[in-house]
Specification:
Helix content: over 70%
Shape: elongated
Distance between the termini: 49 Å
Length: 325
C-alpha cells in the first residue's frame, strides 16, 4: 500500500500534505489556488488548537479532588473527540510524510518519521488520552496509577499547540529565531546545566558539612560537660532540646541543592531556602553574578535575531509590493 502511495502521487494526499504540514510551501505544489489552501490550512490549525485547549479541561479536576458528576461527564465526553482528532492528525502526517522527505527506502522513511520531533509529540498526545478507558470500564488501583501517568502526558499537548501556532506570522518568526539560534542556545543550555550541577554539589557539601560541624561541636561539649566518651555522648545528646536541628529553610539534600541553585542562577530567589554556612553564602553570591551574565547572553541573542527576522520580513514585503507595481 505504501509503495503505491510512494510511486503514484495521489491528488488527495497531495492536498492533505498542503493542509496538515504547517511549514509546507504552498507555492511549490498547490492543487488549488493558494488562497483556498490557506483557508483549509487555517481551518485545520483551528481544529488542532481547539483539541489542545479542550484537552486541558482535565486540569480543572485535579486527581483525588471531588467534583460534580456533570463536570466529570462533560470533561470525559469532551476528551473523546480530542482523542480521535489527535489520532487523525498523526495518521494524516504519517501518510503524507513521503512528500516531506525524499528517502526512497520506505522502512527508513517511516522510521525517520516515527523518530522525528513531531511524531514523538503526536504519539504522546494520543497516549495522554488513554485515561478515557477509566470512563467506560472499571479500573483497579494499579491500572489507575498507570492511567494517571499517561494523563500527566497531557502537558505535551502544549508542544503540539506551539507547533500549530506557527501558522500565524508572529509565532512563525519566534520559532524561526529559536531554530536559527538553536546551536547557540543549546550550548548555553548545556553550560547552565553543568553550572547548576557543579554549584549544587558545592552548596550541598558546604551546608551538610556546616551542620555536621555544629552537631560534632555540640556532642563534644556535651561529652566534656557530662564526662562521657564521644560515642556515648553522641547517643544521649540526641534527646537534648538544644541538639542542633537542620533548619527548614536549609539545603539538606542534593535535590534541594539543585532547586536552590537553579532559582539563584536565574536570579529568581523565592526565599524558601537560604544558605547557613559562610562557604555557601559566598557561592550564592558567585552563582548570582554568573547567572546575570549567563542569562543575558541568550536574551541578547534572541532579541537580536528577532529584530533581524522582522527586518527581513519587512524587506521581503517591500520587494513583493515593488514587483506587483
Amino acid at each position: 500500500m505504501f509503495e503505491s502511495i510512494k510511486k503514484t502521487p495521489h491528488k488527495l494526499l497531495r492536498l492533505i500534505n498542503q493542509i496538515v504540514w504547517i511549514n509546507q510551501d504552498l507555492s511549490d505544489d498547490a492543487l488549488f489556488k493558494v488562497s483556498k489552501i490557506q483557508k483549509l490550512k487555517f481551518s485545520y490549525a483551528l481544529i488542532i488548537i481547539f483539541a489542545c485547549l479542550i484537552s486541558f479541561a482535565n486540569l480543572f479536576v485535579p486527581s483525588g479532588q471531588q467534583s460534580s458528576t456533570v463536570a466529570k461527564v462533560f470533561i470525559s465526553i469532551a476528551q473523546v473527540p480530542v482523542f480521535f482528532i489527535f489520532v487523525a492528525d498523526f495518521t494524516l502526517h504519517l501518510i503524507t510524510y513521503h512528500f516531506q522527505n525524499k528517502e526512497k527506502n520506505l522502512f527508513k522513511l517511516y522510521l525517520k518519521f516515527l523518530l522525528s520531533y513531531y511524531s514523538i509529540v503526536a504519539i504522546l498526545c494520543i497516549l495522554a488520552s488513554i485515561n478515557l478507558i477509566s470512563v467506560f470500564a472499571n479500573i483497579n488501583a494499579i491500572n489507575q496509577k498507570v492511567l494517571d501517568f499517561f494523563n500527566g502526558l497531557g502537558l505535551v499537548r502544549i508542544l503540539r499547540l506551539l507547533i500549530v501556532l506557527q501558522i500565524f506570522a508572529p509565532f512563525a518568526i519566534i520559532f524561526k529565531v529559536f531554530k536559527d539560534q538553536s546551536k547557540v542556545l543549546l550550548n548555553i543550555f548545556v553550560l547552565v546545566i553543568v553550572l547548576i550541577v557543579l554549584f549544587a554539589l558545592v552548596i550541598w557539601n558546604a551546608e551538610v558539612s556546616h551542620h555536621n560541624s555544629q552537631v560534632n561541636a555540640f556532642i563534644q561539649n556535651y561529652a566534656s560537660t557530662h564526662n562521657l566518651s564521644f560515642d556515648i555522648a553522641k547517643t544521649q545528646a540526641l534527646n537534648e532540646p538544644q541538639y542542633p536541628q537542620i533548619p527548614s529553610n536549609s539545603v539538606s539534600n542534593f535535590g534541594d541543592a539543585i532547586y536552590f541553585t537553579t532559582i539563584t542562577l536565574t536570579t529568581i530567589g523565592y526565599g524558601d531556602f537560604s544558605p547557613q554556612s559562610s562557604t555557601a553564602k559566598i557561592i550564592v553570591i558567585i552563582v548570582s553574578l554568573v547567572g546575570i551574565a549567563v542569562i543575558a547572553i541568550p536574551s541578547g541573542v534572541i532579541a537580536g535575531s528577532f529584530l533581524q527576522q522582522i527586518q527581513n520580513k519587512l524587506t521581503n514585503n517591500t520587494n513583493k509590493e515593488n514587483k506587483n507595481d
